[in-house]
Amino acid sequence: MAHTATAPLPAQSRPFRALDHFFVSCLWLAYNVQWGALLAVVLPLQIEAIVGPKDKEFYNGLIGPIGGIIALIIAPLAGALSDRARGPKGRRRSFLIVGMVINVAFLLWMATFGKGSSLGLFIVCYLGVQLGSNWWGGPYAGLIPDVVPVKDRGTASGWMALMTAVGTIIGALSAGQMLKMGFTPIYLLIVVSLIILLLVTLVGVKEKPALGVPEPFQLGPFIRSFYLDPKEYRNFYWVLVTRAMVTMGIYSIFTFFQYFLKDVIGVSDPVQQSSFLIGIITVAGIPTAMIAGPLSDKKGRKPLVYLSGAIMAVASIVYIAVAVNPSLGFTFAVAAVFGIGYGAYQAVDWALAVDVLPGGESAAKDMGIWHVAIVLPQIIAPFVTGLTVGSLKSQSIILGYTVVFIITAIWFILGTVFVRQIKGVR
């Protein structure tokens, strides 16, 4: 049986309007400006500037996962602590502010790194960005089920996917242009986006304060609260597993697009072209994201997950042909097809996760646990890709990416097929 979240509903009695959806989801736009710029465009170039072209795949596959370990721990922890918080304006607000201060401070430091910089200090900065981003990101994930009515969660999921798409477009395309002027301008754009949209969120979202006094903090029970009995919460675990598989597929290639375009397609400006590639994926996904979320409220989540997962798997397989017969136009065309599936999947998957949340007053902790299914693949997948391409490129760079695309397609297929195991949800 599906367990439906029972977090507090909005305090207002009026309908949840489009403007309310914007206020609740807009900080997700800034989050994706940050990671849309950093993961696919800025970090690969910055890492290559620091370590040189010979070892770029290895370190690009290593640094991301190191940061992912921080995210894996901090998002559920901050979410759980925010569930216990009490305040006249709600539980999440103070975590958003403190996390954002940390996030912004380390972003400004990262902007100073370039050729000849210390790799060790760069990793420290990146860990700081992950710490701050997840300290506010975990509680923010709980804010959404706190205030969005159950009947509007599919629509809210569509808004989340829209903000993901728009934020990623802004981040990736801006990075492609602004990196011509150095690293500082794009980092400043990220910082300004985060600060402005945090202020919009704080003003526009009216949290309903949690009632009562939390039980006295005890470390043992607090740690045990992260364990959910697989028998009782079977559906929740299957959502985690399927989401993790699809995310493995996404991050098997996402942070390597720049190197793929340079070393396989042979473009002269891989930084700009990789930003265009990410832009095409996300633009293609916007219409399907906005349609799929509300449609899943009426027709069910599973059919749309099946369809979107199949589209992503097929696109990954077709990319093998792109590697064998390099063509920038073909690369962009397949990216558009992939984006159609990606947008729909992002919209419906969040709603599916909320449908099977254990419920109660621990929405941020539970969404933080769900966040693990997004972060853990970011640790594993880039490392596997970096190792695969790095070890095979002496024989053939095309062989390396062919193997990667095959692995990517397998992850998408598995993540789609196993959605059948989620019971009690349409």
Folded structure, characterized:
- There is one protein chain.
- The protein is mainly α.
- The chain is built from 14 helices and no strands.
- The chain has helices spanning 18-51, 56-84, 93-110, 119-147, 153-178, 184-204, 219-224, 234-251, 257-265, 270-299, 302-324, 328-355, 363-392, 397-417.
- Helix 1 packs antiparallel against helix 2 and helix 8 runs antiparallel to helix 14 (397-417).
- Mean pLDDT is 81; it is low at 1-13.
Class per helix and strand makeup: mainly alpha
Strand content: under 5%
Mean pLDDT: 81
- Show unreliable segments: 1-13
Please tell me what the overall shape is.
globular
Quick overview of this protein structure:
The chain is an all-alpha fold. 76% of the residues lie in helices and 0% in strands.
Which terms would index this structure?
426 residues; 14 helices; mainly alpha; disordered N terminus; 76% helix
List the topology elements.
Elements: H1 18-51, H2 56-84, H3 93-110, H4 119-147, H5 153-178, H6 184-204, H7 219-224, H8 234-251, H9 257-265, H10 270-299, H11 302-324, H12 328-355, H13 363-392, H14 397-417
